[in-house]
């Protein structure tokens, strides 16, 4: 599948219905109140033109009682309108705040619920998700703007009724806003298309902004003096995204100005007609003047609402519905739970894998059995496909072809959540969770995240108990220098914390250690791995037949594994014990020899 082959977005109205249902479930009482107050407030607001006319007529007639009555009427209308609009806007705001949390959590859950991480790496999907994430808060405003739109349309209908009371022909004035609305709808769609086409540049501009302002990139940018270059690139990306959008907006403005000029001409004609033909000329002209000018205001508001409706709410609803469908599709394929234990092991049958959006296989026709209970080391040059193999076994990507089976059970049809519960380990690009040390380790096994004993054991297994001892508040110390009383760790210490997190689970079926100690010195790594291998072979971790996969470039560690797998050019070229591979005299024996020689020379 290429990067641009994406499922089409679901239908607009069906998606809108789904978003509205989600909002409704989060607070039906608030939505009902907001709707009633918004709709009720439309009546005094639209009737204000009539009140104004009555008042002006009374002034012209010099009638004291009528002037007083007109004043009272206008005051009552203004107060009623203000009160209802205030209540409506407060309720709407409270609802929007609550809905924002619901919508954002929903999007985060959907993304996390997708078993694979393909959607994080396919540019076209990323663009969709990035637009959705940017406008997530807008979705929570959906009801508010929908009610405003209904309120404005109601105001426009009442206003047309007032105009018809002067002369039914004035109802024709209601036709002239149609070109404005048509233009507004069409242009909104055109602008949306341009915005989508530029989403990639926008994402790049944001990425470069984060790069220019983040502490991690700061060091390199200063040393290499690449700050000005990043700023230039960011500016260029922004221009590439926004120049076509600005052009599209100018075109929209020109069309809208034309359509509004048409309405203005019709309004002036209506005024002239009323002045020439109405029976009660003064009152009629005043009413047409007041109602007509308000009608033009309502058209402007309808246009704004429709524009946002088309560009944001309808579109976001469709993207949200797409993400919901995508997450459901990737969940629905599971038929079984992960097995309780492994008797045979994890088998790869003719597994080939190319990253989404690419054609080049990074793993090609892999046939392999990782036996239950074994510690298997994976070696190979940079880019040989070691981490890709790890990601496939964790179920983060499905193989492009071939199968991975767990005691014969297809991983692709195994419930990913149940499989993840039985997978643990540390990745090469581990994440530094800036929580308290205890939490940062404990989240490796959520049900026991607050168990100090479990965290203590995991720290010991990772040889990171010395880190906890050296910190001012032990395992309760906040990690990360950016937080009050936060303490930063060295890269190697962060890595050991990540390793401890990977050692939290007691009965994993798969433990992946992808260069888990690359920032730790060779001696410590060796000691650590020796300890780990003893543990893995003892009943505690291997009682369930769990497989351990260790990726390392250090052959002193690798040789301690039960089996060694050599990857070369996307294929498995050698697989066996250390002694077997040395006897084979192939790639492994050669690399082992080079490292052993280097160590000997270094020690001499
Ligand atoms: N997300 C990705 N999208 C596209 N290609 C990728 C992605 N990640 C890795 N690759 C490519 O897949 C190939 C194998 O990468 P992988 O990370 O599996 O190698 P590795 O053996 O772990 O290397 P190293 O020893 O440097 O960690 C590389 O050519 C790399 O460019």
From TrEMBL:
SMART domains: AAA (SM00382). Its main location: membrane. InterPro entries: AAA+_ATPase, ABC1_TM_sf, ABC_transporter-like_ATP-bd, ABC_transporter-like_CS, P-loop_NTPase, Type_1_exporter. The keyword Nucleotide-binding applies. It is found in: Cell membrane. Residues 346-594 form the ABC transporter domain. One of its GO terms (molecular function) is ATP binding. It comes from the Bacteria. Keywords: ATP-binding, Membrane, Nucleotide-binding, Transmembrane, Transmembrane helix. The keyword Phosphoprotein does not apply. It is a multi-pass membrane protein. The chain crosses the membrane at residues 257-276. Pfam families: ABC_tran (PF00005). PANTHER family: ATP-BINDING CASSETTE SUB-FAMILY B, ATP-BINDING CASSETTE SUB-FAMILY B MEMBER 6. This is ABC transporter ATP-binding protein/permease. It comes from Kitasatospora purpeofusca.
